[in-house]
Amino acid sequence: MKKLLTLLVAAVMTVACCLGLVGCGDNGNTTVGEIAIPAVVSDEISKFDKVEISSDFKIGVICLHDDTSTYDKNFIDSVKAAAATLGLTDNQVLIATGIPEGGECKTKANELVAQGCKAIFADSFGHEDFLIQAAEENPTVQFYHATGYKAATAGLANYHNAFASIYEGRYLAGVAAGLKLKDMDAKGEIKDANKDANGNVKIGYVGAFTYAEVISGLTSWYLGVKSQFPNVVMDVQFTGSWFDPTGEKSAAETLIGKGCALISQHADSMGAPGACEAANIPNVAYNGSLISECPDTFIISSKIDWTYYFKWIIAANGGNADAIPTDFTGSLTNGMVALSGINGDVAAAGTKEVIIAERAKLMNGTLKVFDCSKFTVDGAALTTENANVLEANGIVYYNESGVQSAPSFDFVIDGITFLNTLY
Length: 423
Prior knowledge:
Strand content: 15-25%
Number of strands: 17
Structural class: alpha/beta
Distance between the termini: 66 Å
Shape: globular
Helix content: 25-40%
Number of domains: 3
CATH architecture of the largest domain: 3-Layer(aba) Sandwich
Low-confidence stretches: 1-29
Number of helices: 11
């Protein structure tokens, strides 16, 4: 009986650990499954949860791809979560997938208006000009756009941009990657082939385009890595597409072939993580956990959780909330910058504790991701002569997403090499 009770307790603890219900030791020699990172506690996160919405309200969401794209799936999951929280029915949420970055966006937006939508959201950078045209033609409908930057100058009361300080989430995911490299180095798992001529460990990054959004993200991730493992350099391979499973797989394989010991991405398919899993290369994902798909290599993922913003859109258009800003930046505080659980079977021991400590510093302002003392561009530090460089708490830093929600950091810092610049 005693032996049976012991087995039952062990089984329950294993399940609880995987669900993040109890604290489980993240010993590198013990199978621990997913290690949950405690959520930020903030009244902002739940401020719209009890708003009552009219039964005739409808929201439309325009997606570049469908839920096979991790990027678009993130938006789809978020609007469904917001709708469920606020009691909307399925016929109040109209989701259009596979809408290209062209005139099709305007056409679809007008169709959604005709179907009774009072709020319309589009998720991709190239949708912006066409969504603005739809906003001009439908002044009684509110339009929202992710990753764009033209709302401030469009002069339209019914057009809005939104993004989040995801560079902070990327940085924290980079911290986890840096700790992994440190652990690999201590265990002798980093070989000469993983180092450059100066002895720096090589890591890789699969990027979609050379837009500021991608450059800001890859740079913040790299700075997070360097904060824990300074002797590191990074190669970046671009695909020229947001969603190209074959191209992303090929890009990752190119980086692996060049000896990169660990890889991350700003691309939307399983191409790169799948290549890493096949080659047993640790990887950091984007937009969701891949612990099931890549159990032997996935470490952690960062994402923008759009649930808060969708709840605000729904609540505002239900007539029960303050007007939404023309240009809005989500944050760690309101839960829009989020991390997945940590894969305790792959991540270094103690990763959760370090991430929690670093997150606290980001939230209280004592840590700035783009601290200009931590990087150089062509051998020189950025200074306050740049209009986006500020000083606070004794830190000179690039004020990313401070003037507009869309990322603007587009410098190629020393230590990062673009292997191709075709896009």
